[in-house]
Structures are given as structure tokens and as C-alpha cells.
Design a protein that fits this description.
The chain is of the alpha+beta class. The chain has 13 helices and 15 strands. The protein has 3 domains: 16-187 and 273-465, no CATH class; 191-272, no CATH class; 486-558, no CATH class. The strands form 2 sheets. Strands 1, 2, 3, 4, 5, 6, 7, 8, 11, 12, 13, 14 and 15 form a 13-stranded mixed beta sheet that branches. A two-stranded antiparallel sheet has the order 9-10. Strand 11 and strand 12 form a beta hairpin. Helix 2 crosses helix 8, helix 8 crosses helix 12 and helix 9 crosses helix 12.
């Protein structure tokens, strides 16, 4: 994967990457439209999934040295358009928590510039750093840092960050092994045991259901049910045995992590040992810890979700890196186009999409497959990009832009899915509101026109905006159907109430008006026949009065 074969006859436009940063972002749309962020944060910390949870209003939860849950508040010193903020943490906050919070603050700093407090369209959120993963092959080991951003409206962004340095990796190898990392088969994948346990808690109770069917038709019986229970029990025992063993110690960025091989993969050569498995594990691990705002229940079995995966790549250093955009595009357009198409085999790449970054610091291109940031290199910048003290701020600026794009895109995608098949009336109303205001939300998504224009272009390139008209029409049809059913139910209730009040009115008319008249006019009538005759006459009077009112009302509507 990391072979570096120099070819002197290679075209001058060939790209050889020295340093790159990649965020493999997975945007998830949960079925729940309202998330209790505080309850979810408590679950994440108490279950050991994270050490610290940062909230968008600069509050944070963490565990102190005594493993007790603590709440604190960050008060950064600095104005919105200052080039830096100064933050003072309490001495009680552990060093590891400060590291996680610093990264969260870096992104939040740029978010304030993208949206600002007056035009903020995104929902409140929490951000948490999760245990890292390690992808291991025969020749190399790749550690990936993991974080999650969960919004109060049920959108989440799960990110796997990869920082790499080479001595000029060929563009074809870069595309095959880094851009398309999800297709690469690794020998071993190491993850945290708590993530694996949480994943198993979500999967094992419903495991092996698909195996007991043919072409989607179940053939269950007592015998098959016993077999399924046995298989689930054996799976749980295998999990417990594997995770109770001593894991492997990894030193990742001067911090020690004990990780376990994915259960069931040891000494196996035919399993699906791809990076996609990690996305599934982390998503399931979070699923049982997210709390719904309305009923405070955890989102468990039966919750549907939709997700989209798209890497955000920053090419920070590469051979013959230009200082101007014109030089970059004239020399490296075919290479950048191949990366955007995620294919190293194309001989005649298509034209590059428009550059969405108007400034002379980097190019920003994007399509449905990925987002690509290609940096320029001024003469005074160091060879090693990590020697630049502001490098982390530049990387997090790109990630903040990416999260902004992915969040708004998923809001619309999920609304279209709800409009097509609404889980409930509340979901339908939320979907229609989102779709009806899509253009307005995009227009006001940022206080920078450059960012709003980029969002509009990319949502069109993703194909999302094409779904809005049909989604809106479908939602309107369901709303009309919902209104029809509501009106029909209300009309039934109105008729019932009218009947009840008619009977009550007829009884009163018979008792106080007609009955005395009958007794006075025909004193020979029996005590049994008088009430019956009186009620019959009163009912006829009420009926004819109702008919007259209905005719006048109908005539008035027709006119």
C-alpha cells in the first residue's frame, strides 16, 4: 500500500502526495427528530464511550480523577472576528479531557465565523472524542482518530481522521489505498472493547433472523427458534471470552490505548475486514445510548436511520506544489479530477468542477463522491506542514466547513425520506417544514456568501435538491390525507354530539312543553302513553327544525 516507485517518465502533471489529512465522514439521520443532548451525553460518559462531551454553548461534561461526572463551563476570551481565543481550564479538568476539548474548541471557533449567533440555522449539538481504531496490514499500521457530533434534531456526523506522511506516494496508490480506504482488506482491525460490547448488545438480540428465511419468507418453528437462541448464546459467549482476554497496547499520539481485535476475526482470512465494519460498530454503539427528548427512551430496536459516507481530503504537501491557483490547475487538473472520481484507472478524466474557494490559499472542489481541499504553498512555509503552528486550525477550518455542508444536506435527505414514508404525523410535519424552507435555509445558512453559494452548489451536485420537489409534493399528499382523516373523524364526532344533544333537547321539549299540553288536552291518556307520545312529537319537531337549518346552510354555501 505504501510502495513508492519512482518513474522518471511520469507526466509532469502527475501528483505525488507527501502529506495529507483525511476525514472519513459518515452523516447519520436518525428517525428521532428530537434528541435529549444532556441525557445522551451522560450515557456516553457513564458507559465509558468517551471521557468528555462538549456542548455547542461551551458547557462540557467530564469524569474527574475520582471517576465522578462533572459539569463545567468554558468562557473563551476573544471576539467573534479575532484571530484567536484564549481559554483557561479549571485545574480539576484532567489533561486528556483538555486535549479533547481543545479540538472541539478549534472547530467551534470556525463555526462561529461560518454561522454566527444571529444567523445560526443548525440545531444545538454535542461533540465527543471516541476511542481510536487501528487498521493493521502486513506492511503498515494506520491509527484513526474517531469523533462524533450529535445534533438535537437527530442528525449525527461520525468522523474517522487519518493523518499521514509519505515520501511521495503515487497518485494511483493514493486513490486506491487512501481515498478508497473502505475497499481495502486489512489483516487485523483493532477497536475498543466497550465499543464492541455496545455493538453486540444491539445486534445479538436480533441476530440470525435473516438466516431463518428463504427469499424473504420466514420458515420458523420451535426447532428453528431453539437453534437461533443457541446461536445467539454461543455468539455472546465467544464475545465475552475474546474481550476478557488482554488486549494489545498501542501508543497513539503519546497516549496509551488498549484495543482488542474484532471478535471472531482472529486467524480468519475470508472475513470482510474492511474499514466499513468500524462505521457499523460505532453507529450501533451510539444507537442504544441516544435518548429521545419526548419520552426519554433510548433509541433501540426498530429505529431506522439513513446515512451517507463521503471523505473530506486535504492535500497539504505534494511534489512541486505550486504557489498560485493558475499554476495548480494548469499542471494538476487531471490528477485532481481522478481523485474526485475516486478512480485511478481513468485515462481521460472529466473536467474539474468549479473552485468553491475564492481565496488564494487553497482550492476547494467537491462532488457526490468526496470533498477535496488542495493547498497552495507560499515560499515561506516549511517542508513539513506540521512545523506550522497554525496547521491544526487550518485543518479544523476545513472540517467545520465540511460538517456545515453535511449537516444541511442530511437534513434535506432525511426530510425527503420521511415525506416518502412518514413514521408519524409529527415526522411528516417536520419533513414538510424542512422541505418548504430548503431554499431559505440554504440562503441563510451562513453569514458568508462564499459558504452559502458552495452549499447550494454541492447540494445540487449531490443530487439532494432534485429530491425536494417530489418530496414536497409527496408530503403535501400525506398531509391532505391526514387532514381528510382528521376531518372525517371530527365529522363523525360532530354527528354523534348532534345526536346526543338532539335527544337531550327532544327530552326537555317533551317533558316541559308537550307533556303538560297532552295531559290538559286529553286527560284520559294513561301515564305510560303520555311520555312516549310527547317524546315522539318532540323528536319530530327537532328533526324538522334540523332539516330546515341544514337546507338554509347548504343554500348559503352554494351561493
Amino acid at each position: 500500500m505504501m510502495d513508492n516507485n519512482d518513474n522518471p517518465e511520469r507526466s509532469k502533471s502527475s501528483l505525488r502526495v507527501d502529506q495529507a489529512n483525511v476525514f472519513y465522514n459518515y452523516t447519520i439521520g436518525f428517525e428521532a427528530p428530537y434528541i435529549d443532548l444532556v441525557g445522551t451525553a451522560k450515557n456516553l460518559v457513564k458507559n465509558g464511550i468517551t471521557r468528555t462531551v462538549f456542548f455547542s454553548d461551551f458547557k462540557f461534561l467530564y469524569t474527574d480523577t475520582n471517576e465522578k461526572l462533572q459539569l463545567d463551563w468554558i468562557q473563551p476570551k476573544g471576539r467573534q472576528w479575532d484571530s484567536e481565543w484564549h481559554v483557561q481550564f479549571s485545574p480539576k479538568v484532567p489533561e486528556a479531557a483538555i486535549t479533547d476539548l481543545s479540538l472541539a474548541m478549534e472547530v467551534s471557533f470556525h463555526e462561529e465565523r461560518i454561522e454566527g449567533p444571529d444567523v445560526r440555522q443548525s440545531a444545538p449539538y454535542l461533540r465527543a472524542s471516541l476511542p481510536p481504531i487501528v487498521l493493521e496490514s502486513d506492511d503498515f499500521t494506520l491509527p484513526l482518530f474517531v469523533s462524533v457530533k450529535i445534533f438535537a434534531d437527530g442528525i449525527a456526523i461520525l468522523s474517522f481522521q487519518l493523518d499521514t506522511t509519505w515520501d511521495g506516494i503515487d497518485e494511483n496508490d493514493f486513490i486506491s489505498n487512501i481515498v478508497n480506504l473502505f475497499q481495502f482488506y486489512f489483516k487485523r482491525i483493532w477497536t475498543d472493547s466497550r465499543i464492541q460490547r455496545r455493538d453486540a448488545e444491539e445486534l445479538i438480540p436480533n441476530a440470525f433472523q435473516d438466516e431463518m428465511s428463504i427469499a424473504g419468507v420466514d420458515f420458523r418453528s420451535r426447532k428453528t427458534n431453539r437453534l437461533v437462541k443457541k446461536m445467539r448464546k454461543e455468539s455472546q459467549e465467544t464475545l465475552n471470552k475474546a474481550l476478557n482476554e488482554q488486549g494489545k497496547l498501542f501508543d497513539i499520539c503519546n497516549e496509551e490505548w488498549i484495543l482488542h481485535e474484532i471478535v471472531g476475526s482472529k486467524n480468519q482470512n475470508s472475513w470482510e475486514s474492511t474499514f466499513e465494519l468500524c462505521r457499523s460498530q460505532y453507529t450501533n454503539a451510539m444507537l442504544g445510548l441516544i435518548v429521545h427528548t419526548q419520552d426519554k427512551r433510548k433509541l433501540r430496536e426498530g429505529l431506522s436511520l439513513i446515512w451517507q459516507g463521503r471523505p473530506s481530503i486535504s492535500l497539504m504537501r505534494f511534489s512541486d506544489q505550486p504557489t498560485t491557483k493558475s499554476e495548480l490547475l494548469s499542471r494538476f487538473t487531471p490528477s485532481l479530477s481522478k481523485i474526485l472520481m475516486r478512480s485511478a484507472e481513468i485515462e481521460n478524466p472529466t473536467e474539474l468542477p468549479p473552485d468553491l474557494r475564492p481565496f488564494e490559499d487553497q482550492c476547494f472542489h467537491g462532488n457526490r463522491a468526496l470533498l477535496l481541499w488542495t493547498w497552495l504553498r507560499p515560499d515561506d512555509e516549511p517542508d513539513n506542514v506540521w512545523d506550522d503552528p497554525n496547521i491544526r486550525a487550518k485543518i479544523m477550518q476545513n472540517q467545520a466547513r465540511t460538517e456545515h455542508i453535511e449537516y444541511h444536506n442530511m437534513c434535506t435527505v432525511r426530510a425527503c425520506a420521511w415525506a416518502k414514508s412518514p413514521p408519524s404525523g409529527d415526522h411528516l410535519k417536520e419533513a414538510y417544514k424542512t422541505l418548504a424552507f430548503t431554499e431559505d435555509l440554504i440562503h441563510h445558512s451562513s453569514q458568508a456568501g462564499e459558504i452559502s453559494d458552495a452549499l447550494a452548489y454541492l447540494m445540487e451536485a449531490f443530487g439532494t435538491l432534485k429530491l425536494v420537489p417530489s418530496g414536497k409534493e409527496t408530503a403535501r399528499w400525506y398531509l391532505d390525507e391526514l387532514r381528510y382523516r382528521s376531518d372525517r373523524s371530527r365529522n363523525r364526532m360532530d354527528r354523534l354530539i348532534t345526536f346526543v344533544f338532539g335527544v337531550v333537547g327532544a327530552s326537555g321539549l317533551a317533558d316541559f312543553v308537550i307533556r303538560p299540553f297532552l295531559i290538559a288536552a286529553w286527560p284520559g291518556l294513561s301515564n305510560i302513553s303520555v311520555p312516549i307520545i310527547a317524546f315522539g312529537i318532540a323528536s319530530l319537531i327537532v328533526f324538522f327544525v334540523g332539516i330546515i337549518i341544514w337546507l338554509f346552510t347548504k343554500t348559503g354555501y352554494e351561493n
